[in-house]
């Protein structure tokens, strides 16, 4: 379900502050976050965000095509190891 247009996109405040601080200083470093529900804004482009998947942090390099999507979409939480039928050979 999408978010109300009146409310606007949700971006975690602490994450946005860190990205804006890096944009003003010109530094690039990996930012760790647990905010999988945060929407990627155009300010995030070119930065690497380490998104927690419940077990470890997955580094996600943000590109222009990712704007408008949520951070959690790029850090899968489940690992597919193959079907059981393939191991019987």
Core attributes:
89 residues; 3 strands
Folded structure, characterized:
- The longest helix has 13 residues.
- This protein has 1 helix and 3 strands, in the order H-E-E-E.
- 15% of the residues lie in helices and 15% in strands.
- It has a 3-stranded mixed sheet with strand order 1-2-3, covered by helices on one side.
- With 89 residues, it is an alpha+beta fold.
- The mean pLDDT is 92.
Walk me through the topology.
Elements: H1 13-25, E1 31-33, E2 48-52, E3 57-61
Give the integer mean of the pLDDT values: 92
Main sheet, how many strands, which sense, barrel? Answer: 3 strands, mixed
Tally of separate helices:
1
> What is the β-strand count?
3
The backbone outline, from C-alpha atoms, is globular
Task: Offer a concise description of the structure.
By secondary structure, the chain is an alpha+beta fold.
């Amino acid at each position: 379900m999408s978010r109300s247009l009146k409310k606007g996109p949700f971006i975690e405040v602490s994450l946005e502050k860190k990205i804006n601080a890096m944009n003003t200083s010109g530094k690039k470093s990996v930012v760790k976050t647990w905010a999988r529900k945060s929407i990627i804004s155009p300010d995030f482009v070119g930065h690497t965000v380490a998104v927690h998947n419940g077990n470890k942090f997955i580094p996600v390099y943000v590109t222009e095509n990712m704007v408008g999507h949520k951070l959690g979409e790029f850090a899968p939480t489940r690992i597919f190891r193959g079907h059981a039928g393939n191991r019987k050979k």
